[in-house]
Every structure is written in structure tokens, then in C-alpha cells.
């Protein structure tokens, strides 16, 4: 079987053939201008990683790297079947929803003395043990418990075969982001976020790329973060950032697709429309980044180091913060292990 196109080239290919999702040049320029105004803020730096997720351990802690591996391995499918029935996890007086329930549950387990970041433990934990770790504080459980258990135990076994930690597993890639993504995808089946679109094998690699970006964020905070080719990472194509891109006018859905999403139709992983939403989001952020770089060069006479991962790290919390303003734009619903 032919190797899939890398995520960036996949995004370009999808945009060139898309039937229901379109990149809007004027909106791309507006978002780039918005980011240009923020170019010197901490929101658009690697140090924003810890700020964006206060539940993560200190980047200098021994648990930090294995924590991101555990969380990123189970980082998928948090949307509720009904908005009024969401999984909730309360930690230190704050109640969390969505992806943050996972972060809160893992950090809560660590505080309870459960060695949830140790591969020797999570490689062989039972479904029931993981269910207790991920327990909700209401009657709505976290979705896809059995799938989370399968991918986590699989990931733990792989780490044990490669030195027993995420750091030892990823170290053969050196400081090469491309090699890191390849190492993850080659060894961890649950990270192989691929599809066939218009007869072409493509890749989106949301979780593999975010795992590399999270690794970089920790190493950057430790002042060990030089990763010269980090710009090979694209945005992390999920269901929340596309909604933000539509809200900001950089992405447009056809009337037919918008109606489908408003009707709550479930899109299967690999469905043409699902691939178009994710692929066009990737290329949209690439165009935003390119325009931002041009603005910085033309106006400031400098090169710009704001990459697609940083733009994603900004847009995801932006979507959460502005969820009421963009509630009229439906997210797409796909139950899968890839995002």
C-alpha cells in the first residue's frame, strides 16, 4: 500500500478537491491580522502550554512527559450525546468538562497515589481500574472507556519495549519533529489517523502531532526545547478548531453540510465530509500562518517563529472561551479514537 501524504500535503490535496468545505481568503487575512496584533503576547509562545492547561504537572517534574503520553493517548471523543448530559470531573473545587475531564481525572489519580503515569502499571491495568480513574462526578461517564483502555494498555506495552518511558521511546528521533511523528505512527497503531480521499491515501495525525508538540512544550519550558523543524507540524484537526475557523470567517461550509451538521447527523471516521472538514482546516491554518509570516516580515522586518502548533494552541482555548458566540455553528460529530 502506498504511503499516505503527510498532513500538510493532505490538507492541500483535500482543499483542491473539496465539495463542501472551503477556505476563505478574506477570512484568512483577518485571522492573520488578529494574530499579528497578538504576536508578542504569551498566548502565542510555547510557554503558553502550561498556562493553557493548569492541570498538567510542572514541566520540570519527573511525571510531565509520561503524563502527556497518557493524556494524548486517550485524547479523543469527549463530545456529549446531549448537551445537558456531560461527563464532569471536579478537581480541587473546579468542575471540568470535555477534554479537561481527562486531564483532571489523570491528575486526580496521581494525587490519590495511583501510578497512572507509570507504563508498568497502565500497560496492564484492567478496564475497571481505568473506569475508576476516569470516573465522572455525575451519571454521565466519559465516552469510549473500552477503547481508551485498549489504546492506553497498548501504548504502555510499547513504552516498556522501548526503555519504559516516553522519553526513552522518543529519544531515537533526536530533536527531529518529523522523525518523532514517524516513530509514534509506526509503533502505536492508535495514532494512525489516516483515510482514503478521492482515491488518495492521506494522513491527518492529530494525536501524533499534538504529542510531539506537547513534548516540545515541556522541553521548551525546561530550556531544552530546540527542535529546528517543528514547523512540519500542522494544526491538530479535531472538531473544535474547525468551528472556530468557521466563526472567524476563514473556513466556510456549504449550506448542505451546515444543514447536515445542524440535524445532528453522525459522520463516520473517513466519511468524505468529515475528511473535508479536517483537511481544509489544516490547509486553512497553513494559509493563516503564511500570511502572518508575511505581515511580520513586511511590517517588522523580522522573521516569524509562530508555527501552526502555536496557532492551534491559541485557537482551541479561543473556541472554548467564545463557545456561546459560536453556538450557532455546529461541530461535526464523529465517534473515533483519532480525535
UniProtKB/TrEMBL annotation:
Electron transport found in the keyword field: no
GO MF annotation terms: hydrolase activity
Residues in the signal sequence: none
InterPro entries reported in the protein's UniProt record: Q_salvage (IPR019438)
Listed EC numbers: 3.2.2.-
Catalytic activity: queuosine 5'-phosphate + H2O = queuine + D-ribose 5-phosphate
GO biological process, one term: tRNA modification
Enzyme type, top EC level: hydrolase
Alphabetically ordered keywords of this record: Hydrolase
UniProt family annotation: Belongs to the QNG1 protein family.
Function field: Catalyzes the hydrolysis of queuosine 5'-phosphate, releasing the nucleobase queuine (q). Is required for salvage of queuine from exogenous queuosine (Q) that is imported and then converted to queuosine 5'-phosphate intracellularly.
Protein name in the entry: Queuosine 5'-phosphate N-glycosylase/hydrolase
Gene source species: Oncorhynchus mykiss (Rainbow trout)
Amino acid at each position: 500500500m502506498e504511503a499516505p501524504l503527510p498532513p500538510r500535503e493532505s490538507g492541500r490535496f483535500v482543499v483542491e478537491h473539496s465539495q463542501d468545505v472551503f477556505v476563505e481568503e478574506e477570512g484568512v487575512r483577518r485571522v492573520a491580522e488578529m494574530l499579528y496584533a497578538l504576536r508578542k503576547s504569551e498566548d502565542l509562545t510555547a510557554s503558553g502550554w502550561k498556562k493553557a492547561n493548569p492541570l498538567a504537572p510542572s514541566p520540570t517534574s519527573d511525571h510531565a512527559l509520561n503524563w502527556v503520553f497518557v493524556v494524548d493517548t486517550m485524547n479523543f471523543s469527549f463530545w456529549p450525546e446531549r448537551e445537558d448530559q456531560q461527563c464532569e470531573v471536579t478537581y480541587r473545587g473546579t468542575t471540568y468538562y470535555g477534554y479537561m475531564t481527562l486531564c483532571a481525572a489523570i491528575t486526580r489519580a496521581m494525587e490519590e497515589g495511583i501510578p497512572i503515569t507509570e507504563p508498568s502499571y497502565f500497560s496492564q491495568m484492567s478496564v475497571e481500574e481505568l473506569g475508576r480513574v476516569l470516573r465522572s462526578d455525575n451519571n454521565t461517564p466519559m465516552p469510549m472507556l473500552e477503547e481508551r483502555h485498549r489504546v492506553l494498555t497498548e501504548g504502555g506495552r510499547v513504552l516498556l519495549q522501548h526503555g519504559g518511558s516516553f522519553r526513552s521511546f522518543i529519544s531515537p528521533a533526536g530533536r527531529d519533529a518529523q522523525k518523532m511523528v514517524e516513530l509514534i505512527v509506526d509503533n502505536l497503531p492508535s495514532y494512525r489517523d489516516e483515510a482514503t480521499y478521492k482515491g488518495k491515501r492521506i494522513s491527518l495525525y492529530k494525536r501524533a502531532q499534538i504529542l510531539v508538540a506537547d513534548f516540545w512544550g515541556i522541553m521548551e519550558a525546561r530550556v531544552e526545547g530546540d527542535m529546528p523543524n517543528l514547523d512540519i507540524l500542522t494544526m491538530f484537526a479535531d472538531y473544535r478548531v474547525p468551528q472556530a475557523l468557521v466563526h472567524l470567517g476563514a473556513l466556510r461550509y456549504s449550506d448542505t453540510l451546515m444543514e447536515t451538521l445542524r440535524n445532528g447527523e453522525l459522520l463516520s471516521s473517513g466519511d468524505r465530509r468529515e475528511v473535508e472538514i479536517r483537511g481544509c482546516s489544516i490547509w486553512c491554518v497553513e494559509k493563516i500562518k503564511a500570511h502572518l509570516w508575511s505581515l511580520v516580515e513586511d511590517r517588522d522586518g523580522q522573521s516569524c517563529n509562530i508555527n501552526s502548533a502555536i496557532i492551534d494552541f491559541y485557537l482551541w482555548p479561543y473556541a472554548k472561551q467564545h463557545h456561546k458566540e459560536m453556538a450557532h455553528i455546529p461541530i461535526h460529530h464523529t465517534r473515533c479514537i483519532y480525535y
